[in-house]
Amino acid sequence: MPEMLCDVMAKITVWYDGACPLCMREIALMRRLDVRRAIEFLDIAPADAVCPLDRQLMLARFHASEDGVILSGAAAFAAMWRVIPLLKPLGFIARNQLVLQLLEWLYNRFLVIRPGLQKFLG
Description:
Elements: E1 12-16, H1 21-33, E2 39-43, H2 55-60, E3 63-66, E4 69-72, H3 74-82, H4 88-93, H5 97-121
Parallel strand pairs: 1-2
Antiparallel strand pairs: 1-3, 3-4
């Protein structure tokens, strides 16, 4: 009789700016939605934080790792969404290159207004 395979879920690492009020609100929401505790959230705001890439680059854009690959921007968000049950469908839709390109375009536009939003929330 074949062994039953359990649903193995990838562990995702997310690096975030703990000094950013906007980022903190978003991470707080993602923590609540991450009911399976599949995401390791790492605050890289402290000067002594360990970063796999240039710290300023990681503070400027959202980064996550999936299957050992470091992703940035919309691809990083999509990786995080794929392990959150409520957002999983959106994460899988984002595997489509056209959808991911659109999400990246939107993310880049968001980065332009992000400093103003940070000031407003700060």
